[in-house]
User: Fold this.
Amino acid sequence: MLCIIFTKKKAFAAIYGEKIELLPLSNETYISYSGTLREALEAQLPSISVKYSQHVLKTGKKTFDPIPLIIVFPTDNSDEQLKQEKKAKQWIKSFAPGFRLVHTDNLATAYIRTILSEKETINNDIVVLEALDDYVNLYIHYGDKTKKGYYKTIKELGWQEGKKLVLEKLVTTLAQEGFILNEEDEAALVSQLEHHKGGNDFIIRKKTAGVAIDAKVHLPDSSYKDLICKGRSSLDELLNINLKTNNYIYKVFLIGKYFDNPFFLNYLCDHLNLQGKLISKNISTNEQAIATLASGVFKKTIDIYAAKKAKSLAKRQQKKRRKQLLKEILDVCTDRTKFKEYNSIYIKKGAAIGIPKSVILWLIKENLSADELPDPFIDNIEGLPASIQTTKPPEHTKEAVKASSSSDIEKAPTDTEKQKNTHTPTPQSQVDEVKTSQQINRLATSTTANIKPEIQKETQKVVDTPLETKPSKKTSNKKALAEMGQYLSIEKMYSDTEFMLFKGKLKGNEKLRVFRIILADDAKDKNEMKRFRSLHDLESSYYNDKISSIYTMSFGRFYHRDFIQGTTLRNYITQNGINQKQGVTDLKTDELQLILALWKEINGLNFACKNLNEDTILVSTKRKWNLKKEINIHLVGISSATCSMGEMQEELHQIFERQLGKELYQQIRQKFKL
Assistant:
């Protein structure tokens, strides 16, 4: 994990390992920057990434791709600062494909978290004084959550003002001894102050009549330290105004070497009565303070990962419990005289794991009247115990049960999946969607095709009339597809796809979906069925909850996903004239965003498949409230033919070279290190 920590003028980088380490940046442990936070990231992130990679290789630590990134911003909570932070985060997500932003924080809260527990932090007023740059910054965290934290830069206090007072003292002392300094002499003193690391003598060399004379001022260490923090009295008024009395202050945190000063510490203790409340951990150097701060940031990151892992585990366990309960209902609820008893037991069990009451009631009712159920429902529960079967199940159902596997069992319905059905009062679920029966356009076609990815483009043919086909040896495709028409309506067929693919709707449901089907005869081929399942697994990992389980019907097996509105990458590039640009500097921000968003999409996959091309990548856009264009990438060309991620990335390079031209794309690759 990599953490970049910003002060107002400097950027530090820390890496998480057995101990927190600061990466060496240039000749220092920090990089000085100017401009906005976004500009600083854009300028410095590439070099920081190189330093990170070199350090990882040298130490043998575990590498991550993309690199988990945490950013700590300056504490300033002004509107301008918050705008800068927002732009910086947006830039990372859109234009830094090699990084994954985990979370962000600010200097003050990160440092507090390092030392105090969450309970201590939440319920108390805490003061943070930070002096990692020229000035001291004051931040007050209030235990009263109705109050916004208070922030102020104290320009009377800090290195810049302190060294100015020291310089005035040196100039005055030299003048009293008869040395009048010119600009060159003052510059020599300023240089000595900037690099002051202890010692009491400050020397300048003056030439008079060709004779060099050294002028030396001895400034006791106590005088130097007193002058450096002379503006400390300004804290008196600030703290009393904001906290009324110091009895309200729980702790005072000091961040930075500036506070390693007995005059300042004595002032806080004796004058402001803060003894016992000061925390000045590791402030002998600014680097130590930054490392301490970074440990709090990494602590939060680990907590975030732990929470995500626990949430994911809980979700998997709940899914497993739901599946087990549905199987139990189908197995146990077979006695019609015990209908009320079943309701009493299973409604409570269902509620405990998030299954709606309506779904439980419907499933029990349908199971008790299984002899009246249509074939599709029996098919959809293939693989369950034989005790739920009717006394005279359809012949195709017996075969399906025998050949089935648990992976075909539907997912448990959720509240969000409920929809009204004009034909039956049953709740919406993946079982319910297949149950309706209406007429459809009669369709017949071959069920197998060359292995090519799904294609969505304007030239696809809409099928309005039946197509003729040769009957198979066992069951004609025409007959199977005619049976399909009882449950599905077809709007557009997609050609040159892996298995049958079309856009349409479930009967009684107006939502557009994309259906992929393997007809019954082809499903009997083990290799074909294995390939069909493999494709479903890949698409499930990409579309997540927007894709269904595999359903087994009399006409074959199918699954569906939400229909995606968008235009192909080929059309988008042509329509927007991106392929007409001569150089990378001619590209607009949203045009670069398209390229980087697609790389981010590919690099974020947990699999790689062959046959990626410009017609199987969809681009959708929308204008945000601030009129900026938001670009989203969707892969609709997933195929069961897998490959390595490197091969898939090479296909993407070739796509961009074809669409943008080799010269322009090479410029883009060099700029963004693609």
About this structure: Residues 371-475 have pLDDT under 50 and may be disordered. The chain is about 40% helix and 20% strand.
